[in-house]
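BUG: 3D viewer hangs when loading the predicted structure for this chain

Environment: internal workstation, default settings.
Expected: structure renders.
Actual: progress bar stalls at 90%.

Input used:
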Amino acid sequence: MTLTILALTPVIALVAWATMAMLRRAPGKGLRRLVAANVICATGSLVLLAVLLFGLAGPAMAASSTSTSGHDPQAALLGAAIAVAGSTIGAAIAVAYTGAAALAAISERPEMFGRAMVIVGLAEGIAIYGVVIAILLISRA
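Structure tokens produced before the viewer hung:
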């Protein structure tokens, strides 16, 4: 796994450099190309995930990945990753909206600082729930 990540590092650096060059030359076109590249990468990732989840890679590989107890540790790790990713994305969206509203409220009435920060903190708690679920899933794997 580590070797794969190390082998992909130059590719990632090259893509990042090419993206920066495209955005400098023609910002409108570069952004469209960047969005298109992200869509292609996301589609490829979803196809790879479907192949791995539904066992289309072969019955021998699927049979060797499950344990004798009937629990699949890879499924638990995937579930933990989805829980953390979903909760952090949700928390980011919630903090963006509540943080903007809190700044607007504080600029008009500075005494609202405490109440506004409590609301922003509640929105940030969504990410903590995802981490707790991930810990529960990993501990049962």
